[in-house]
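Researcher: Sequence recovery benchmark, item below. Answer with residues only.
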C-alpha cells in the first residue's frame, strides 16, 4: 500500500502534466465538472480535488464501501468532511429521507464544501454542514488543522504526510453530541 506522501508525489507528477496542458489551452486551475452524477467546483492543485477530477472520486474504495453500506433513510456523520468528497455521495445514498451531518473545521475546506453543496441543490435538503471541530470537550480547540494537500511544491507542508496546516475559525467551536438522546452541546 502506498503512503500518503507517495500518493501526493505521484499525483503531483500527473498534476504538473495536466496543469501544463490546461495552461497551453488557456484554462486555469479551477474547474466545474460532473463526476458520478455530482457537480464539483475543484481546485486542481489540491490533492483531494485532483483525485475527484482525475479518478472520479477521492478514495474510490472508501466511496464504494460507503455506497454499499449506506441506505436511503440512514443518518450519517462525515467527520472531517473537507470539500465534501464523501459527503455528497453519502447524501445521494441517504436520499430522500435520510440525513448527512458534515463536520469540517477548516475555513477554506468548509467554504469549498458549501460551494459544492450549492452546485447540487438536490443534495442540500438531506445535508447539514457545520463548521465545527468535534471533540470530547476535554481538549482545547486548535487554531488550525491539516486539511490541504497541495500538489504544487511548497515548503510549508508536514514532512510525513505532506499536508498543509490551515486555519479554522478564529475561536473554533468544539461540538459534542449525544445522538442517543437527541441533544447537543457546544462550547
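Model:
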Amino acid at each position: 500500500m502506498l503512503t500518503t506522501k507517495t500518493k501526493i508525489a505521484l499525483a503531483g507528477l500527473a498534476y504538473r502534466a495536466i496543469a501544463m496542458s490546461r495552461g497551453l489551452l488557456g484554462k486555469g486551475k479551477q474547474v466545474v465538472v460532473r463526476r458520478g452524477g455530482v457537480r464539483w467546483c475543484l481546485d486542481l492543485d489540491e490533492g483531494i480535488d485532483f483525485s475527484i477530477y482525475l479518478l472520479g472520486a477521492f478514495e474510490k474504495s472508501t466511496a464504494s464501501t460507503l455506497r454499499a453500506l449506506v441506505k436511503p433513510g440512514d443518518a450519517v456523520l462525515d467527520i472531517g468532511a473537507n470539500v465534501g468528497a464523501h459527503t455528497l455521495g453519502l447524501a445521494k445514498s441517504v436520499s430522500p429521507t435520510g440525513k448527512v451531518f458534515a463536520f469540517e473545521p477548516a475555513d477554506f475546506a468548509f467554504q469549498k464544501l458549501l460551494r459544492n453543496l450549492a452546485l447540487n441543490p438536490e443534495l442540500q435538503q438531506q445535508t447539514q454542514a457545520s463548521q465545527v471541530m468535534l471533540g470530547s470537550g476535554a481538549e482545547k480547540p486548535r487554531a488550525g488543522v491539516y486539511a490541504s494537500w497541495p500538489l504544487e511544491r511548497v515548503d510549508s507542508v508536514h514532512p510525513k504526510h505532506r499536508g498543509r496546516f490551515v486555519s479554522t475559525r478564529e475561536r473554533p467551536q468544539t461540538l459534542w453530541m449525544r445522538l442517543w438522546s437527541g441533544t447537543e452541546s457546544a462550547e
